[in-house]
Amino acid sequence: MCFRVVCMADYEDRCQCRIIHEERVDGARSKALAPEELDRLANFFKALADTTRLSIILALQHGEMCVCDLAAFLAVSESAVSHQLRLLRQLQLVTNRRQGPVLYYRLVDDHVSQVTDLVLEHIRE
Amino acid sequence: MCFRVVCMADYEDRCQCRIIHEERVDGARSKALAPEELDRLANFFKALADTTRLSIILALQHGEMCVCDLAAFLAVSESAVSHQLRLLRQLQLVTNRRQGPVLYYRLVDDHVSQVTDLVLEHIRE
DNA sequence: ATTATATATGAACATATGCTCAGATATTAA
DNA sequence: TTAATATCTGAGCATATGTTCATATATAAT
After folding, report:
1. Which of A53, A88, B90, B114 is most enclosed, with most CB atoms within 10 A?
2. How far apart are CA A59 and CA A27, in angstroms?
3. What's the complex ipTM?
4. Whole-angstrom distance, CA of residue B53 vs CA of residue A119
């Protein structure tokens, strides 16, 4: 019978002896991003990690669209689109202009497009 | 009392009349990615959308690390790390080499790093 | 003012996700 | 071959996520 680190309680106690290469762990720690920056980075990727939101972003790369057009294009409810647009708005990825009762959404800048283009290049290799 | 498209059943029936700019919807449809490509793109972003996986990727940018080192660095269980590494392996983002019982993980190429660098630039502006 | 259109929002619900735990596998050493 | 180390894997569970439904808000027209 061998003892391994299984539960987190044990893990905490024996943490030290489980580090094989302490200098690498220390190195990683010293080069790690600040927690807020890590979160912002992850949140950016989270925005693109859902096909509905990703499709919205990709569609807006070709010009502004209103909510009901996006809903028709994506074949989801306008409510669903609206919820996702709010998330993208909060992340400063999209913005809108009002023309009467219609809100036209567009990308805030081309940063997201640069990223999707770059990733698509890699995927298509 | 006004009637609006609320439930998806109604939506399907009246889909046409909810499209304000049919040409934009058609345009978006014609420029849309193929479903498989859209999924691959979303899956790539999904891989980076979790702080544990993102931290693994960022750590490996500075050199290879074994599972227990990553666990120590991330302060999560080795099992959790192993599960996430499997996902990253399946997405061809990381690979490993075995030296005795120890598996050293590294990035497959610098594509991911290009992406994280690009996004970090934008975030830091 | 009332009605209609377009969108937003909150709650509920079902699914997806990430971690833990327990046990399995692979490699090495005694 | 027995034991130890390092990692992997599957099931269970708690939380996160995305959609729907119902309703609210904003603007415009009658």
Report:
1. A53
2. 41
3. 0.90
4. 17
Interatomic CA–C1' length for residue A83 and nucleotide C12, angstroms: 15
Q: Per the domain annotation, does B3 fall within a domain?
A: no
- Contact check, Cβ <8 Å, B24/A118: no
**Domain residues for A60?**
35-124
For residue A70, the chain B residue with the least C-alpha distance is: B25
CA of A4 to C1' of D3 (A): 12
Taking only the tens place, the pLDDT of each residue in B56-96 is 999 999 999 999 999 999 999 999 999 999 999 999 999 99
Question: What is the rounded distance in angstroms from the CA atom of residue A90 to the CA atom of residue A67?
Answer: 16
| CATH code, A62 | 1.10.10.10
Instruction: Give yes or no for a contact between A88 and A53, defined as CB atoms under 8 angstroms apart.
Output: yes
Q: How many domains does chain B have?
A: 1
| Residue A79 within a domain | yes
- Do the domain assignments include residue A26? no
This prediction's pTM: 0.89
How far apart CA B8 and CA A94 sit, in angstroms, is 26
